[in-house]
Amino acid sequence: MHTATTTLTALLVVGLLAFAAHPALGGESGVYTAAPDEHGLVLKTPDGRTVFRYMTKKPAGSKLTANSVCCLYPVKTPSGEDVVEFAPDDHPHHRGVFMTWHAIDGKIPADFWGWGQFAPTKDRVIQSRSVRLAEADARHAVVEARNDWVAEGQTLIEETTTIVARQQGKAYVIDFDFRLLPKMDLTLKQTAFSGFCVKSRKGPSAAYFDPQGEVKRPDPHHLKPETDWPAAEWYDYTFPTDGKKAGVAVIDHPENPKTAWHNLKPIAMLNPCIVTAGPVSLKEGQPLRLRYRMVVHDGPTPVDLLNELAKRWRAK
Questions:
Q1: 54 and 145 in contact (C-beta within 8 Å)?
Q2: pLDDT class of 29 with cuts at 50, 70, 90
Q3: Of 231, 234, 293, 315, whose CB neighbour count within 10 A is largest?
């Protein structure tokens, strides 16, 4: 009897020690968390640092001119530096990290980007249906967002997006998997920009980089698709921050459609564009899947890390 009691006590002690060593197994302590605020859902690391907010509501008094909000803002580095802007003075329809097009043709043409030059914006809005923390432990988190792209009261596209976030060294690695289900036949018209966009912070000595080093190509023209930058595994934009540096990179996925890049330094934009080479047809009921890996980093462009992350991403 004494031996059995001793054995049971020992097992309980071992179990408690294992539980303490792996806090992800119990409660919220030691795991990524997400909590709603007045503008969306805020994702935080196990030690309480903000990674990003998935924004669903326009802040009161905001200068945002786009009807749609659904985006990531803010987005922070591991040390807490902000890397994106929301409704800046020069482009008040831009918002953090977002996905959409400004020239969608079909039975009901639409501009969900907010530019208004090639399709109507009135009564066109991306509406958040839900955003939730789908999975979390001590190493990563998965956020799922569901949105409806509505024009004149009709849903043109049903969007389901998963966002996987984790920290690796001095960087957050944030993977996007967009699944866009057309509810009718649509055409994404040929344009120089639109799609997945990171509207970064500007800086006087900011620079773009690719795997070969600093990129010094001419700025692309927003009305000339042929001026976009060529396909690359990744492009990075790094800018100064109070004597230090921070930046954000985007890694393309090999199964995305043919892509050129509208990386425009005057507005600190990273934009892999799938409609540069020509229009993209979307058939009713046939989803378009787009995947991107975003790397938000402290310090100068982490070339070795980006090459490693690109290799793993492109192998998936």
A1: yes
A2: low
A3: 234
